[in-house]
Amino acid sequence: xxxxxxxxxxxxxxxxxxxxxxxxxxxxxxxxxxxxxxxxxxxxxxxxxxxxxxxxxxxxxxxxxxxxxxxxxxxxxxxxxxxxxxxxxxxxxxxxxxxxxxxxxxxxxxxxxxxxxxxxxxxxxxxxxxxxxxxxxxxxxxxxxxxxxxxxxxxxxxxxxxxxxxxxxxxxxxxxxxxxxxxxxxxxxxxxxxxxxxxxxxxxxxxxxxxxxxxxxxxxxxxxxxxxxxxxxxxxxxxxxxxxxxxxxxxxxxxxxxxxxxxxxxxxxxxxxxxxxxxxxxxxxxxxxxxxxxxxxxxxxxxxxxxxxxxxxxxxxxxxxxxxxxxxxxxxxxxxxxxxxxxxxxxxxxxxxxxxxxxxxxxxxxxxxxxxxxxxxxxxxxxxxxxxxxxxxxxxxxxxxxxxxxxxxxxxxxxxxxxxxxxxxxxxxxxxxxxxxxxxxxxxxxxxxxxxxxxxxxxxxxxxxxxxxxxxxxxxxxxxxxxxxxxxxxxxxxxxxxxxxxxxxxxxxxxxxxxxxxxxxxxxxxxxxxxxxxxxxxxxxxxxxxxxxxxxxxxxxxxxxxxxxxxxxxxxxxxxxxxxxxxxxxxxxxxxxxxxxxxxxxxxxxxxxxxxxxxxxxxxxxxxxxxxxxxxxxxxxxxxxxxxxxxxxxxxxxxxxxxxxxxxxxxxxxxxxxxxxxxxxxxxxxxxxxxxxxxxxxxxxxxxxxxxxxxxxxxxxxxxxxxxxxxxxxxxxxxxxxxxxxxxxxxxxxxxxxxxxxxxxxxxxxxxxxxxxxxxxxxxxxxxxxxxxxxxxxxxxxxxxxxxxxxxxxxxxxxxxxxxxxxxxxxxxxxxxxxxxxxxxxxxxxxxxxxxxxxxxxxxxxxxxxxxxxxxxxxxxxxxxxxxxxxxxxxxxxxxxxxxxxxxxxxx
Length: 908
Known about the structure:
- This protein has 908 residues and is α/β, with parallel strands linked by helices.
- Helix content is 35%, strand content 14%.
- The protein contains 29 helices and 28 strands.
- The strands form five sheets. The chain has an eight-stranded mixed sheet with strand order 3-14-15-13-12-11-9-10. A six-stranded mixed sheet has the order 4-16-5-6-7-8, with no helix packed on it.
- Strand 18 (696-702) and strand 19 form a beta hairpin.
- Helix 9 runs parallel beside helix 10 (185-193), helix 18 crosses helix 19 (442-455) and helix 22 (527-535) crosses helix 23.
- Mean pLDDT is 82; it is low at 1-8, 214-218, 336-356, 844-861 and 902-908.
């Protein structure tokens, strides 16, 4: 029978469905990352020859982080397929089976990407074609460091000179690895004239990430590495015109006055690179005439009150703080508002909450995740931090961040972001919330996010704070830019992987695709329409600054935003955010929504908290949290503030809602479309491509449990993803017996499910993946733990594929082995085992197992058959989907799962 409960599609839903179709639908095999994600989710055991061939031929992305050979099943690989893969992405060389790994394969890899030289086995590198491999590699050297990987025997004599020339002609920075005595003027000229390396990398979201050596080229001039005996005026002129900073590293006798004026014409700020002894008043005046900003780099003995006044009047964006102290004193009354002469950070105190309403949090409190989930279904951990205030956190008490070099600022940001990320065990599923006041300027904020995204493996969702709206204007002296322009520039400066929200709703539509609804999308949609969108979304985050329109004291009049926000706009912006908040509240009152703002709710709304929602904010610099008995959750307990301190992340765990397109269907048998079946699987987190078999598709539903079948003119089949299994009875038989079948399976396998769930949780505790598939729990891609369903014993093992496995006597032996290189997980395991916090992973029974050796090579797949069946059964527990049917189950004891599993030999 065909269901008539399918709701009519709204325009917003249609728009989101179309986006999803383009991103992940049937037509989206054109998505360049399609095959990588599909095979990675499918697993190697489910792949076939045709699939592997299509994937290698179809995956043309050249991205260091995504190698198609990493996710394909090795049993279907051929020499030609491996050759095709490394020609498209040289990094695939790492995953070429040894039997196919030869010199020609290596040559193909380094021609595509010189960095693949690091993956060439030493034996091949020293073989007959080793020189040829190195030659192709250094000619394709993006980073300019591959000469350091070339065996010394290839760097000698004429062949060595040819190799050096090939390297520096490709990347001038390779000159760093050429012995000084071998650097000639010819070689130096080749290095200086070498092109700036640019590499475009297609990202999973469709954006093009352009990697360039330009920044390194500018900040690390090649002349630094040249001996003086090969320098000449011609060479210095050539170097300076390509990189003016070169003038800071060469003797003055090679620098002509004409060259100095040439690079000033190129950019007046280049005055800072001209040696002091070559500058004079005429040259300084010439540069200032072209651009008054040059005042910030003029030598102090050339700085006068007159030229400073002239520069400040010509360009209002020049900061008076860039001038010498004696000049600031003379000009401060004219060019700095009196309100900000003695700048001190404003200390805020919450007005609406008394100390009895909130739980104050000390700086040294242990940071356990707050678990807000019900524990009945899938959940997700969110990490959060606010108010990082880089201008204060990166410096000592007597330091001024404006006086630090760019390289020193980057170095300090690198250390602090490493400190932040290393405080938790995050993976690519992790989401980090950042609640504003990261920095006072776009430039510094962009540096922070660039370093953070290199280290944080998951998603980042952020909002701005009032400090970001200062727009780099500490004293409020510049002409204020429109807020929307400032926000746009911040958003444009942030790297991929960071979602900056301002009056926006971020959703994971059907759990599959991230979408951001802006203010117009939210307000134009009807409440019914927005409710439908929220019901179809697994994660919902409402984000924005919030503003301080309701705060009678700490608002725009107190200088919170400097000159960028008036009191009237402060009130208007608060009203705008509240309007969006109330629209989402009316649409998703009973659905978990994260409200991420910089300002606390009391500043932009006088309504009560919704106990079903989670609120994260900063701004007050008073760490507190509110966890009420009615469910109200307000996290303001990780505000870093002004005083330098150790950075750590806090976290909370919430339920993740899966979208169920058949939720409103009555119990019974319903004919559905193929698209609906694929949609259901994907939304439940089940890897699914399409159904290739003819016939009509039906869903059998009973008490929110599902069984999917396909019927053609002759037979009825049970659907297991895109596979089918012949059934022996008519469709009514399965509907009538489905309740009893599910009951027996649940009763029989519940103890095992609890055991493997506990094992998974312990793996997550030490920083591993914890993903469960059948009887196997992943530590990472290559390292796993098998939980034997027959005797309950755990067997840790390393596996390159389903055939070649190395088993270890216990988890500690696996983590200490050469095949495991994650020291963080090993440290966490050691720490937690000493405290007795991981009893399953460290149980004495497993340590006492007597094996003849530390490990044994296992070359069979006996473990995978029970694991495959267990994985099929696991869908009943995790997604309420029945994917395996055995009539014998209806008559077996409800306490023994062994009758459903094939015989298995003891593995340990």
